[in-house]
Write a structure and sequence with these properties.
Number of strands: 16
Largest sheet: 7 strands, antiparallel
Radius of gyration: 26 Å
Structural class: alpha+beta
Number of domains: 2
Order of helices and strands: EHHHHEEEEEEEEEEEHHEHHHEEEH
Helix content: 40-55%
Number of helices: 10
Strand content: 15-25%
Distance between the termini: 22 Å
Bound molecules: zinc ion
Length: 382
Amino acid sequence: MKIYKGYVFRIYPSDEQKILIHQTIGCNRFVYNYFLEEKKKEYQETKRIKSAYDQIKLLPSLSNTYPFLKEVDSCSLRNTLFFLENAYQRFFHGSGYPKFKRKGVLESYKTNNTKNAYHGKIYESIKVDFQRRIITLPKLKEMPFRGYRHQTEFHGDIKSAVIRKDATKYYVSILVEEEVPISPFVPKTIVGLDLGIKDLIVTSNNEKIKNTIQINHKRLIGLQRGLSRCQKGSKNHYKMKLKIRRLYQKIRNARKHLLHDITNKLINENDMIVTEHLDVKSMQKNHGIAKRLAENPLSEIIRILTYKAKWKNKRLIQIDRYYPSSQTCSVCNYQNKNIKNLSIRTWECPMCHTMHDRDCNAAVNIMFEGLTQYMSELRTTL
Ligand SMILES: [Zn+2]
């Protein structure tokens, strides 16, 4: 089975390379906006638009009019036209009309790995040398990187790279096509997860995983107040803005680390993971960065577990969320309707007199329900 895996490296470009990265991002924005304008006119007049392939043919003549386009990675410009086409596809499927790109905080461009055979040797435009800790990218050439200390090579083909800058740092994510052998799935371990709010996750092993992402709201509000006091376009305004961006970036990174720690542990320790389907309400997306970062990360955890399970030949089983996991005694199956009250944290089963922790008992039930579902799936495939 072929899978795509992304590897993110922090890169350390020289001042010259930084300039070229900014130039490339700028040129991509220029090409995006130029062809968006074209497509807009075309769409108004004919209700039809040119495909990305047709627009790519126009790039050489555009580069003659605007010679600065010739200085940057031409592959990235072609990719930008595909991004524009995707934006239109989303528009045709009900999303908003594509917007012009403005200079922003998180900016990036994508380039592809091209292979050339020369004198019997194969040259690739994107290379990662784990021994020398050097990454090679089209036009930019070599630069040092950090990350993946224990990796000595990629086990597959590099397909593409996205070069990205945030407020102060530079990253590249490399997409690698890897072949994973399909081995028979023989589960030995299973865990049930009760997804909550106070404790993020309680497992059927009675482990409690807390949401430790902290947002310093006081500081954020203070900074935003400071920003509103600075005159727009002034040096202090810019400095304040940078401080806010850095704070957001810090929270974003902490969140990402936490989610990967949690999901790695779950995936590595268990062959089968059972959860309830999340309800739509908890999946609702908030607008605004601060709200989005503060929002409960459970749906993100499920998303990560889904692809990691696929990578590692494990199973993620999601059960019906109307299954009464909290009310059922996991020892004798007695259904205790009194437990509906969310304030009850521990209870004693009136039938078998087992003392239950509300969430752990629910997690055990979820585990059994998942196991039942898996067994019935097995029976139908046999
Ligand atoms: Zn009982």
